[in-house]
Amino acid sequence: MSRYWMQRCLFDHLRELEKIDNDRPADKVETDGYELTDAERTALDRADVGALYELGVHPVLINAFCRQMGWKRADYAVLFPEGEAERMRHNQEVRWLTS
């Protein structure tokens, strides 16, 4: 069930960033109140895209998170484990890699 909490935490963070009066930096995810493992909390605290992917965060959430930080696809595709972005692109698993 921990993957749910990690994705929920990131989803809530992204919704918070959409608020007009929000002044939180995009890479500062608030992890208090979520049932996360130490590895999950560390990945979120460090905005470690590769670790988030390996821990099971859906690529669409990762895409939105990276875009909020002002990164373009080429900036963060290299943060996935070696060859993973190319494998996903080749298998057409995620639309954000092909659009």
Q: Give the radius of gyration.
A: 13 Å
Low-confidence stretches: none
Q: What is the percent of helical residues? A: 40-55%
Number of domains: 1
Can you describe what's shown?
With 99 residues, this protein is mostly helical. The protein has one domain. The protein has 6 helices and no strands. The protein is globular, with a radius of gyration of 13 Å. The N and C termini lie far apart (31 Å). The model has no long low-confidence stretch (mean pLDDT 80).
Overview in brief:
The protein is an all-alpha fold and 99 residues long. It contains 6 helices and no strands.
Present the secondary structure layout.
Blueprint (H helix, E strand, L loop, with lengths): L1 H16 L20 H8 L3 H6 L4 H10 L4 H5 L6 H7 L9
Helix pairs in contact: 1-4
Task: Jot down its keywords.
single chain, 99 residues, mainly alpha, LigA_sf, Aromatic-ring opening dioxygenase LigAB LigA subunit
